[in-house]
What we know:
The chain is mostly beta strands. It is built from no helices and 9 strands. The chain has one domain (3-112): Rieske Iron-sulfur Protein (3-layer Sandwich). The strands form 3 sheets. A 3-stranded antiparallel sheet has the order 1-9-8, with no helix packed on it. Strands 2-3-4 form a 3-stranded antiparallel sheet, with no helix packed on it. A 3-stranded antiparallel sheet has the order 5-6-7, with no helix packed on it. Bound molecules: FE2/S2 (inorganic) cluster. FE2/S2 (inorganic) cluster binds at residues 44, 46-47, 49, 68, 70-71, 73, 85-87.
Amino acid sequence: MDVRLSVDLNEDGARAAVISDGQRERSIIVLTRGGTVAAYLNSCPHAGVRLDFGSGNFFHRDGHDLQCGVHGALFDPDSGRCVAGPCKGSRLVRLATRIEAGHQLVIQDVEKIPGRA
Ligand code: FES
């Protein structure tokens, strides 16, 4: 099943959102930059906890990399690859998405999203 969220492609940033397939809720990261959007499961590959640890802040102080608030792992926002920290070399789970009508982010096949969140 697909889930739709509104996004503003003119605004750069990252925010948490909760989606559901009717069976379970999942926290995801919606990242908008330069008119593009990416969505990741909000789950650090190191320990399976939310990257923002509930704070709503996903960015390292450099303003570019995503950072896990628990042990400080850094993730490249374009690939989701961990570039520093205890899970270096692993990746965030990137979700299959598409944009409709210029502002609807469609998260595809939500029931197939692996892991816990
Ligand atoms: S839980 Fe994210 S770096 Fe340890």
